[in-house]
From TrEMBL:
Localization of this protein: Membrane
Native species: Dromas ardeola
Family matches, as SUPFAM superfamilies: MFS general substrate transporter (SSF103473)
Membrane association type: Multi-pass membrane protein
Protein name: MOT14 protein
Record lineage: Eukaryota, Metazoa, Chordata, Craniata, Vertebrata
Length: 516
């Protein structure tokens, strides 16, 4: 599972006591600090997803600067958007070892570094590495913890919380578009990217707000440990070794042997450190370094083992036929939302509607209604008499219908209506973490959602270039929408034909798992 022992917030203790000791829920769940987590996730969506929706401003600057083809230049934006989502499963390795907070802070620094280095780009291929890869990986390291932490802090109002946090995408599309346009006009695109890199450092602040969940028992236990450590240094050192031992127990015998070997090294270091107080400072400093390296080795090995077993050892994820169909759906869904943002301006130009579109752009209509769609669909899904799964499917059917009918609309009013429906129905993105949890349970939420957003990343990476390739062949955007809409419909049909959908009651199952 992505979430480390710190992030989960429950005291599992020893294996022998796990079944007898009752779990006390954290008072911050569904309240208190949980709303700070929503705020943090909201800001993450503004700074990451919102800025990616505004890359059209920079794309025009890159075309004028480097004089490359539109297809090649568009890969810079596609790489950034796609890699942000594709790296989701691999970010789990960092979360298993460091937790969500540290992963997000490191990602914020990496994202800012990508923006700043891109300001010195000499060609498009340089941007592939700095902006597409570096900033994209950094964005992924912040985005996934932001989504996972909201799911951990909320149980009863999870859909609403996810809806509120993800509305940052719509707000960010407005704010970042205006910001980048102003900066490019006043200072040039290079200085604009440098300033945007400084703004992106606020992602580190968002990561710092992702405080791990703890129960009262865990907090009191840690307080006792601190007071005991003041009295006896040897006991504190012994406790640190026990903490490493309890930081993730694996069932495989080889892992136990490796664990024992590393703990033997720690024990030797402890005895030498306790008995050698009269030795020189350099020797003690060297022993402390050895102890730290041994602890880091144990943490890395166990973090990698937990991450590896979650994806390749837990067959339950991929034996769930509905979840496999969900992955197939995700491969086509996200591109149907991204393609209108990229190609609508050109369609408007072909229909001679530029004057009306300049007053109120169609992409702005999508972004505005998208905000309300996320909140309203989240509220509806939280109603006890409403199935989240049914709301999710209805929103998907509405979106795919709009994608297929959009090329038939040739007036500004009809295009505006269709774009409004696209924005509202695409609000189902806020339900994706909830639906994922309903399908696989709370235990596998982070892993499963990482796989889903990875599939979405592939869709975002390949969808826009594919649509451009279709236009180059047919000289019409109509077929781009038709093909993407049909593929999207195939993904929805895969969700419907699974026989276990009607029998599955995900919400009840998820609640029962949370109480175990």
């Amino acid at each position: 599972m992505y979430a480390s022992r710190e992030d989960i917030g429950y005291d599992f203790g020893d294996d022998s006591e796990a079944g007898s000791k009752p779990i006390k829920p954290n008072p911050n769940i569904d309240g208190g600090w949980a709303w700070m987590i929503v705020l943090s996730s909201f800001l993450v969506h503004i700074l990451i997803m919102g800025s990616q929706m505004a890359l059209g401003i920079l794309n025009m600057e890159w075309l004028e600067e480097f004089h490359q083809s539109r297809g090649l230049t568009a890969w810079v934006s596609s790489l950034s958007m796609g890699i942000t989502l594709i790296v989701g499963p691999f970010i789990g390795l960092f979360i298993s070892m460091c937790g969500c907070r540290k992963t997000a802070i490191i990602g914020g620094i990496l994202n800012a570094l990508g923006w700043i280095l891109s300001a010195y780009a000499s060609n498009v291929h340089y941007l592939f590495l700095t902006f597409g890869v570096t900033a994209g990986v950094g964005s992924g390291m912040v985005y996934l913890p932001a989504v996972v932490m909201v799911g951990q802090y909320f149980q009863k109002r999870r859909a609403l919380a996810q809806g509120l946090s993800t509305t940052g995408t719509g707000f960010g599309a407005f704010l970042m578009t205006a910001l980048l346009k102003y900066l490019c006009t006043e200072f040039g695109w290079r200085n604009a990217m440098f300033i945007q890199g400084a703004v992106s450092l606020n992602l580190c602040v968002c990561g710092a707000l992702m405080r791990p969940l703890f129960t009262k028992d865990v907090v009191s236990e840690k307080h006792v440990v601190r007071s005991n450590s003041e009295d006896n240094q040897a006991k504190a050192l012994s406790h640190s070794a026990e903490t490493i031992k309890s930081n993730g127990v694996l069932s495989e015998e080889p892992e136990k042997k490796e664990e024992a070997t590393n703990e033997e090294v720690l024990d030797r270091v402890q005895h030498i450190e306790i008995g050698g107080k009269s030795r020189s400072g350099k020797s003690m400093y060297g022993l402390r370094i050895l102890k730290t390296v041994s602890q880091l080795t144990v943490t890395v090995r166990k973090g990698f083992a937990i991450w590896y077993s979650s994806y390749f050892g837990a067959a339950s994820l991929f034996t769930n036929r509905v979840f496999v169909a969900f992955i197939f759906w995700a491969l086509f869904a996200y591109s149907s939302f991204v393609i209108p943002f990229i190609h609508l301006p050109e369609i408007v130009k072909q229909y001679n509607l530029s004057s009306q579109n300049n007053i109120f752009p169609l992409t702005s209509i999508i972004a505005i209604v998208h905000i309300f769609g996320k909140v309203i669909l989240g509220i509806i899904s939280d109603l006890p008499c409403i199935s989240t799964w049914n709301v999710f499917l209805m929103a998907n059917f509405t979106l795919v219908t709009c994608i297929l009918t959009l090329p038939l609309m040739q007036t500004y009013v009809t295009l505006a209506v269709v774009c409004a429906l696209i924005g509202f129905s695409s609000g189902y993105f806020s339900l994706m973490p909830v639906v994922t949890e309903d399908l696989v349970g709370t235990k596998h939420l982070a892993n499963a959602y990482g796989i889903i957003i990875c599939a979405n990343g592939i869709s975002a990476l390949l969808g826009p270039p594919f649509a451009g390739w279709i236009y180059d062949m047919t000289h019409k955007y109509d077929f781009s929408f038709y093909i993407s809409g049909l593929l999207y419909m195939v993904g929805i049909i895969f969700l419907l034909i699974q026989p276990c959908i009607q029998k599955k009651q995900p919400r009840k199952k998820s609640t029962e798992e949370a109480q175990v």
